[in-house]
Amino acid sequence: MKCITILSVAVVAWGISSADAQYDRGGSGGGWGGNNYYHSSTAAEGRMRGTADVMRAAGDANMSNAAAQNLYQDAYSKELDNRKKATNTYYENKAAWQSHQDQDTKLRQARVAAYQTRMAPERTGPSQLDPITGTIHWSKVLSASIFDSQREKIEEFFTQRARYGSMPRSEADRIGEAAKQMRRILADNKDSLDPADYTAAGKEITRLQFEAKYPVG
Fold this sequence. Notes:
Shape: rod-shaped
Number of strands: 0
Largest sheet: none
Structural class: mainly alpha
Strand content: under 5%
Radius of gyration: 53 Å
Number of domains: 2
Distance between the termini: 91 Å
Helix content: over 70%
Order of helices and strands: HHHHH
């Protein structure tokens, strides 16, 4: 704005001085129509033309500024649109990635659950555990006196479970400890046992330990 003001003043000054000079140079040689120079305008007309030129230049400058402002606004609007598109693309890609991760996580969890189900031991049947009374039908190997202490803890647990329908997790953990002790005793006597009986006894302990996690039924 300062540049336009200075330019306007300069142009006005130049127009006025030029008009005055043209009038002065007429001199005694005939004024504006003398022998030395010929001018078709008066000093006043020169000033008016100078003023008109200044106004026209100012108008042109305003038009140029307006055009530049429009170009700037258009470029700024396009930049905002590009930023918005870039932001939307980022979040869309992030959402797609997160969706893929969620699906992958669910797939892995399903595979793990299927594997655990497939590898989990079978629950005890009525031939091993009476669901109504909680009585356990022990195999010959585990009926030996060396397992008396562990059998007593496990039998008490399943008797209580049959009475109340379920047992606290803490009680089930105690059964797990008794089952570990039975396995250690079983392993210590492995050499004196038939391999098939040894394997069957190990599975029997595992089924009872697994069954302790569930309510009756």
